[in-house]
Design the sequence.
């Protein structure tokens, strides 16, 4: 009954107040800001080159959205994605983790650490939901929607659907991992999805280039804030 009531209220509002195409469009778009955390920024333990350059873009584009959500990579110290937790292994080695290929990373985004905090330069006051992922020590989660094995949902899809969202724009770090898998899952779930190119940076730019071919093939779009507003406003 709650869902039905929400649905009725939503339809009701839509027909009465959000009846023009442009405002309708606004109400149905969400911005997903992925992992803008100290460890992915310069001097962080898994620093993405140029990661700090996306901050002004990610801050500015928020004004175009009525709903802003964010994610935080949020690992326990003994997380299986950390090379330090596997004797004789180094960062960037690949292991089998419960049947899935797992890239090993330097320790990063440990729950409660400074490295796991959002950059102080990220505009956060309009963020309505923060999804924390990678919290189970045996399970890694790049996407904001599912863990890497697609075994469990984070609840984000349900949240967005209940908020009437049909289109998501994904930005943040890193382009070739958490941003890419978030955007791909969004498409698969039936959302229209776009990646904000000047609002993201890759760990491996060549790898990202290959991955986004598949994203485009599946119907994903690439946008850039600069193109939308040539004067940078
Ligand atoms: C990420 C590697 C490991 C990301 C998270 O946010 O893209 N990459 N954990
Ligand atoms: Zn991680």
Sequence:
């Amino acid at each position: 009954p709650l869902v039905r009531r929400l649905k009725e209220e939503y339809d009701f509002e839509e027909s009465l107040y959000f009846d023009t195409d442009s405002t309708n469009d606004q109400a149905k778009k969400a911005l997903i800001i992925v992992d803008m955390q100290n460890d992915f920024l310069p001097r962080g333990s898994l620093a993405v080159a140029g990661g700090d350059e996306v901050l002004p873009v990610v801050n500015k584009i928020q004004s175009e959205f009525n709903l802003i959500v964010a994610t935080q990579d949020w690992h326990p110290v003994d997380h299986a994605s950390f090379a330090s937790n596997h004797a004789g292994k180094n960062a960037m080695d690949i292991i089998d983790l419960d049947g899935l290929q797992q890239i090993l990373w330097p320790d990063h985004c440990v729950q409660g650490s400074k490295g796991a905090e959002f950059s102080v330069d990220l505009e956060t006051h309009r963020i309505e939901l923060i999804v924390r992922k990678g919290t189970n020590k045996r399970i890694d989660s790049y996407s904001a929607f599912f863990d890497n094995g697609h075994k469990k949902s984070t609840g984000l899809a349900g949240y967005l659907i209940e908020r009437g969202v049909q289109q998501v724009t994904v930005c943040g770090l890193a382009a070739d991992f958490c941003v890419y898998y978030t955007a791909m899952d969004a498409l698969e779930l039936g959302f229209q999805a776009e990646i904000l190119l000047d609002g993201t940076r890759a760990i491996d730019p060549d790898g990202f280039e290959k991955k986004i071919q598949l994203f485009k093939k599946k119907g994903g779009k690439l946008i850039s804030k600069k193109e939308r507003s040539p004067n940078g406003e």
User: Anything to note?
Assistant: The pocket of zinc ion (ligand 2) is lined by residues 73, 75, 81, 108-109, 134 (CB under 6 Å).
